[in-house]
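Step 1: inspect the first sequence and its tokens.
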Amino acid sequence: MFKWLKLHLSWYTSPSHADLSPEALHVGPFLLVLASREWRGDSPWAGLIRWGRPLNKAQISAETRFSLPVVDRVLEELEKSGTLERRGGCWGFPNFGEFQSCPAGGSYLPIEEEKRGEEIRVDLTKGAIGEQVSALWDMQEALRKEANPTARKLKLTPARRSAVAARLREDGYEACEAVLREYAQNAPNWLNGETNWRPKNFTRTLGTIGARRSGLQVVPNASEYAEPGVYDSAGNRVGGAE
């Protein structure tokens, strides 16, 4: 999977997307992320594939953490708009390569490639980033104290400072604040200075927050949707295979 993914403004402004529902506009980028995992850059087509096998609706629901009814509606909308196609039973983006490729002279490359592998050192204790990292850590500790008044204060070690700075650079200060509040409300035991800053946990929590703000249903436990079946309007599995 690539370290970055382009989401063009045309995703929201294209005439072919004018009639898409808010659900489809919001869930679509999650599908782009799935398509990026096994795309090798040598084809315009990118399928929703895992370990070389097409993802079914239940698996897409599990991967994106949106309920099966939502996924079902979104796939139908995106297929009608021409953004998604089915080939041999596999959903995919027919123009993925066109939008993700880097034209000569105007390409964006990850910083390690731009610098040809040169190590870049930044003092994370100074300047604006140092202040923001410290502020986020203080916020974390205050929320931990509220959840558990007897909790001992955690030291902001260099490794922990780097972890916070990575999320700060990637997602921004407001997103970091929102994720910390989400942890405090729903998973205070994760506020341990380690778990809450791990990229996978952080990104998943951001997705949960974004979905809630868009008025979408969020699957609380994606593993419940690992097997195909029939689901009711609340996303509960009620029947056998599709």
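Step 2: inspect the second sequence and its tokens, then contrast the two.
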Amino acid sequence: MRRVRAAAATSALALVASLATGARADDLDPRVLYAEGNFVGAARSFEARFQARGEAGDGVSAVLAWYAAGRYAHARALLASVSPKIQPGGKLAERAERVGARLVHLSVTADLAGDPLAADATIRVDGLAPERMDDHVLFDIGRHALVIEQPLCEPFRWEGVVLPDQPVQIAVTRHCDLTGTLHVTLVADRNFFTSSRSIAVDGTAYSIERPAGETSERDVVLQPGRHRLVIAPSGRLVADEQIDVAVKQTVARRYRVPWRVNRLAFGIGAATAVGVSRLQPSVGVGVGGAIDGSRFVMDFDFGRAASLSTGNSGEWFGLELGAHVFQRALWQARRGGALLALDFDPLVVRFDSFQQPATEATGATRDTIYISGAPLRFTAEWAPLQLALTVWPFAWAYSEVNLVGAAPSTSAFGAATSLTLAWHQ
């Protein structure tokens, strides 16, 4: 190898002297540096000239000087950029071709296979920036150490001996922490139905521990990208949305749990009920309260009643009792900030009493009672505010006049509806 380098240096000296022209008097002549054996200094000076002027002669001189300095990989990479400027067929092209053939044997290309590198990845060979040609890394022959560093990743290290005419393939493996965090907060009272306290991200369930206060929190570490978050304790939809998670970013979501999922919830608000049958169609308007939960309901209302047939008004009282057999709604969705649900409760009944004057002359009152069951209830909830429209398709109506000698009481089948606007807490 020493004989090859000595011979190359001798021949290159004559070639450099013939190629390097036009040096300014105030510059240190790179030919002098070369003659003194300062090949690196000469190569840098020639390469600087080439970068400034773009002349092929300076470029080839720089390649020859780097070759003489034993920097084969750099010389080969530089020759690749000089070659397009060399006129074919001349001595310069012949000399460039000759040194290029030698550099192919004295430098080796390495293909970085395996995991793809990010744009901000940094490659070092023996602590320095590597020589590149196309998508390959160039090595001088000999032992080398390659290190690839990338933010948020462990450094990848490779060491090996590079032999002439033996291309290298390096299987790059990355171990990176590119995850982000989804932080979910559930707000509910302390009677939150704990048996189903969990969330689901991309179909995987994550439990939430019962806290001391009224909020439940959970951090879920996720890969960057879009993920689906579903929160449906006891089958009641709280959230179903697509959330974008970025690298090392925390996305926070906060949801209030619907009252229907609580073991116990109290409500107060405005109410109205309508009973329809052939006896005495009536409507009641007033206020009410509720003690509801995930398993049962007790609702009471009172106010004024009016007959839809005669227009007479009186008093109204309503009571709703029953058990929620089905925790999951027939249909549910989230639209904007509202939770929508359609429920069927076969074991819930409602009692409504409408009292209106029978005749103004006698002062007698007509009592009409509706007992309804198996309701379909549509709810729209902006927690803690809830609007509920309930249809009672099955109702038994009973009517009598509280007056001696009045017509006997009668009964019939009908239907009923109720509408409530309540504040649940």
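Step 3: confirm your contrast with the notes below.
Helices lie at 2-19, 30-35, 39-53, 56-68, 72-82, 91-106. The mean pLDDT is 82.
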